[in-house]
């Protein structure tokens, strides 16, 4: 991954709007390394490229617009600032922006593309030395659905008692939140306190999906230059599975999670318990509490994605992953302008 800027870029000057800078920056990143972009696509080419649509949805998240109809209306306003934003998105100010139906259709199909862009940004952080991935953390966080909850008894009978219930959402359990009706955000993040703590890969599922089957895909999303530098992945007891441990070892790193000793504990698990209880194991595992757990709360606070602002798994997945991508871009912006704490002022950048 090549370095994008050698010095502070003109588009990131203090006289420019931060949003305009972000939109232009999206066009400067070399997304050609995305694995999805290398696949052959059949059918008629898009009228609006994925990057243009991505920029438009960044605008929606930035201004917390509640619908794609509001996004279309916002871009149609004949005001100087709106025209600047349209131009930064790559749209012609002399033509109407994408319709609400176009935004609806593209939002349902762009989650995989955003997921790849998150991995690309993670690789960019590592290649430029902003992130040290020697130890990374994996975890998940429950997100409440929009609207009323759908009780299990009604769900079993197939009865939707209220309008506005998100019928894609499911019940999930957390030891801190207990039962939550909604979705689950899965993240792999860096943990080194001397560098930047940032998401490196992410995905979204319904709340009832276990962490275990998602883990291999999260790890596989990481670029090879990151995986080569990873030595340990720290996780909570929800990832306690021999298959996941073997998968990790086959990829060149060790999965570290709390393991208790019992009378009939197999020898292989005793080795894992010995490492976890060792001085090195405790130092490695302590990274989780100070990295990924506060990261979840920070992202939720900045982008207000709990409860999620949309309904339906495909829409929720795209919007939440867009928030993760925008978070990465804003942290990268702060890194480039040499802020002491790149994550500290994220709220103020988007006017929270």
Description:
This protein is α/β, with parallel strands linked by helices and 352 residues long. It has 2 domains: 10-113 and 309-349, no CATH class; 132-299, no CATH class. Helix content is 46%, strand content 12%. Strands 1, 2, 3, 4, 5 and 6 form a 6-stranded mixed beta sheet that branches. Helix 6 runs parallel beside helix 14. Residues 1-16 have low confidence and may be disordered.
What is the CA-atom radius of gyration, in angstroms?
Answer: 21 Å
Number of domains: 2
Strand coverage percent? 5-15%
Q: Could you tell me the number of beta strands?
A: 6
- List low-confidence stretches: 1-16
Q: Calculate the terminal CA-CA distance, rounded to whole Å.
A: 32 Å
- From the spread of the alpha carbons, the general shape counts as globular
On the 0 to 100 scale, the average pLDDT is 86
Structural class: alpha/beta
Helix and strand pattern: HHHHHHEHEEEHHEHEHHHHH
Helix tally equals: 15
Sheet bearing the most strands, described? 6 strands, mixed
Fraction of residues in helices? 40-55%
């Amino acid at each position: 991954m090549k370095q994008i800027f050698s010095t502070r870029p003109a588009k990131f000057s203090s006289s420019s709007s931060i949003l305009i800078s972000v939109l232009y920056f999206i066009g400067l990143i070399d997304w050609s390394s995305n694995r999805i972009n290398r696949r052959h696509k059949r059918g008629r080419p898009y009228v609006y490229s994925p990057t243009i649509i991505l920029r438009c949805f960044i605008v929606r998240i930035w201004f917390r617009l509640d619908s794609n109809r509001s996004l279309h209306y916002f871009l149609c306003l004949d005001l100087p600032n709106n025209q600047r934003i349209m131009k930064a998105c790559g749209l012609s100010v002399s033509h109407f922006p994408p319709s609400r139906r176009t935004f609806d259709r593209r939002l349902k199909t762009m989650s995989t593309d955003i997921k790849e862009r998150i991995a690309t940004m993670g690789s960019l952080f590592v290649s430029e030395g902003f992130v040290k991935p020697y130890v990374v953390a994996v975890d998940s966080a429950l997100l409440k659905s929009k609207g009323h909850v759908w009780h299990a008894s009604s769900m079993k009978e197939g009865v939707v008692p209220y309008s506005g219930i998100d019928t894609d959402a499911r019940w999930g359990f957390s030891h801190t939140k207990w039962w939550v009706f909604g979705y689950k955000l899965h993240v792999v993040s860096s943990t080194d306190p001397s560098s930047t703590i940032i998401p490196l890969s992410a995905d979204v599922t319904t709340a009832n999906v276990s962490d275990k089957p998602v883990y291999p895909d999260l790890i596989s999303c990481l670029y090879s230059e990151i995986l080569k530098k990873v030595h340990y992945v720290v996780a909570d007891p929800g990832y306690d599975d021999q298959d996941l441990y073997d998968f990790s070892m086959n990829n060149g790193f060790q999965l570290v999670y709390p393991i208790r000793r019992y009378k009939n504990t197999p020898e292989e698990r005793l080795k894992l318990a010995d490492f976890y209880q060792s001085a090195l194991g405790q130092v490695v595992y302590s990274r989780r509490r100070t990295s990924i757990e506060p990261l979840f709360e920070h992202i939720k606070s900045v982008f207000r994605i709990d409860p999620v602002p949309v309904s339906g798994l495909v829409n929720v997945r795209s919007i939440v992953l867009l928030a993760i991508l925008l978070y990465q871009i804003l942290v990268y912006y702060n890194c480039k302008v040499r802020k002491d704490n790149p994550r500290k002022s994220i709220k103020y950048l988007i006017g929270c």
